[in-house]
Amino acid sequence: MVSLLTLLDDIATTLDDVAVMSKVAMQKTSALMSDDLAVNAGVVDGVSPDRELPMVKAIFIGSLLNKFYCIVGVLVLMAVYPPLLTVIMVIGGLYLSYEGVHKIVEKLFHSNEKTKQDRKTIPEKEKVKGAIRTDLILSIEIIVIAKSTLSGDFLTQVLTLIAVGLAASIIIYGLVAAVVKIDDLGLSLMKKGFKRVGSSLVRIMPYTMKGLGVIGTVAMLLVGGGILAHTFHLPLYTNEHVQNCLIGLVAGAVCVGLMELKNKALPAKVGH
């Protein structure tokens, strides 16, 4: 009886530690999750209404698998060669900075209508695969950052990472499903006689998507810059968020510039 009570007390203590550490880890990764939400809502936006939720479901399942791969990968690296996690963090930070600046460049210098038309021609399976690939990058960063906040025994850390991974996917894709159905809810309310409320929901949908796009872009720069700043222990000269955003902009601009040079060099080599 005493042994059983001791076991139950140990389980309760472990779960309490998991809850506390999960809360801290979720706070640290909240910017990445807002980025994941914005990216995936954008992927599903414009799809036929009857295909929206099936697409979200497919991406959600892919996201759960991504979290599993990332948790196993992080734990293996921690046991085999922990410094490699820092390299992964830097690569992820550069990628997020690149994506953030790339979105800004695309918005400022490329035809918005052409971009929308190009997106419509992409097959659904390709959209889902692309979303899952992007989710994998963000999942790696979420799990690595979450791991950096953890302490305690191995079991507690594993349970915390599982809790964070599950919570991140459920929250993100639950919100994606809700966001993409706002206009359908509005149309349904209009048909039932609630025209003012329904039309308001339909009208705010485009602004909601634009707002999520802006939030996602800013989150990419903040997180990307923040990862680089913390990894290289850069001194703080101004507000941390402002500085991280500026670092993300500079790093992203360099990456975009290098990619442009590479793209221009490749046709020259092919022609030669």
Structure description:
With 272 residues, the protein is mainly α. It is built from ten helices and no strands. The longest helix is centred in the last third of the chain and has 37 residues, at 195-231. The protein is globular and about 60 Å long. The N and C termini lie far apart (81 Å).
Order of helices and strands: HHHHHHHHHH
According to DSSP, the number of beta strands is 0
Which stretches are poorly predicted, pLDDT < 50 over at least 5 residues? none
Q: Averaging pLDDT over every residue, what do you get?
A: 83
Helix percentage range: over 70%
Report the principal-axis shape: globular
Distance between the termini: 81 Å
Q: Number of DSSP helices?
A: 10
Largest sheet: none
Number of structural units classed as domains: 1
Oligomer: single chain
**β content, as a range?**
under 5%
- Structural class based on helices, strands and sheet pairing: mainly alpha
Radius of gyration: 21 Å
Fold topology:
Blueprint: H1 2-28, H2 30-44, H3 49-80, H4 83-109, H5 112-120, H6 124-148, H7 154-180, H8 182-191, H9 195-231, H10 240-271
